[in-house]
């Protein structure tokens, strides 16, 4: 998994009724785009994440 600043990290809900969580990558802390990532959620809080198999990166250049 590789990301750059500005990409979206989508964590898919693993339980029926649980919605996906979408956050924005604000810092890539690993080398060459690898995790961990500092992400910002829509409510403004930030977290450091090492995404698992229930996550995907949506690159900003493919969202346009």
| Helix coverage percent | under 10%
Largest sheet: 5 strands, antiparallel
Counting DSSP E segments of at least 2 residues, the number of strands comes to 5
Judged by helices, strands and strand pairing, the structural class is mainly beta
Q: List the secondary-structure elements in sequence, H or E.
A: EEEEEH
Estimated share of beta-strand residues: 35-45%
Number of separate structural domains: 1
Radius of gyration: 11 Å
Instruction: Please state the overall shape, judged from the principal axes of the Cα atoms.
Output: globular
Mean pLDDT: 91
Our measurement of the CA-to-CA distance between the termini, rounded to an integer number of angstroms, reads 20 Å
Strand adjacency order, main sheet: 4-3-2-1-5
Structure annotation, total helices: 1
Unreliable spans are none
Give an account of the 3D structure:
- The protein is mainly beta and 64 residues long.
- The chain has one domain.
- Helices cover 6% and strands 38% of the residues.
- It has one helix and five strands; from the N terminus they run βββββα.
- It has one helix at residues 60-63; strands spanning 8-11, 21-28, 37-40, 46-49, 55-58.
- The chain has a five-stranded antiparallel beta sheet.
- It starts with 7 loop residues before the first strand and ends with a helix.
- The model has no long low-confidence stretch (mean pLDDT 91).
């Amino acid at each position: 998994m590789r990301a750059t600043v500005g990409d979206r990290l989508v964590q898919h809900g693993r339980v029926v009724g649980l919605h996906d969580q979408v956050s924005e990558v604000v810092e890539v802390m690993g080398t060459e785009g690898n995790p961990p990532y500092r992400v910002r959620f829509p409510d403004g809080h930030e977290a450091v994440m090492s995404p698992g198999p229930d996550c995907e990166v949506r690159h900003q250049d493919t969202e346009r």
